[in-house]
User: What shape does this take?
Amino acid sequence: MEIIGKKALDLLARKHADARNAVSAWVAEVETAAWKNTADIKKRYPHAGFLSNNDVVFNIRGNNYRIIVVAVYICGQVIVKFAGTHDEYERYLKKGA
Assistant: This one.
């Protein structure tokens, strides 16, 4: 999958050193994946959450961090909408993301 919006991931990794390895591992796995649907994601990430509009929530580093992407299966892309701490994620959702 092609990852669009890696800047948010880079910012997360720079801001939170303890997330750096987990974010790098997630990026490496996603870039080699060929997801066709939500079932493909669930096979590898059983704790991923699925929201409306093909939004997928990934728990990173023991649920300390969250990444939200839009999966565009037909194009083979994931578009990063959010990357941050669990608390930042809660505030993001409250804003009506």
Summary: The chain has a mean pLDDT of 93. The first strand starts at residue 2 and ends at 4.
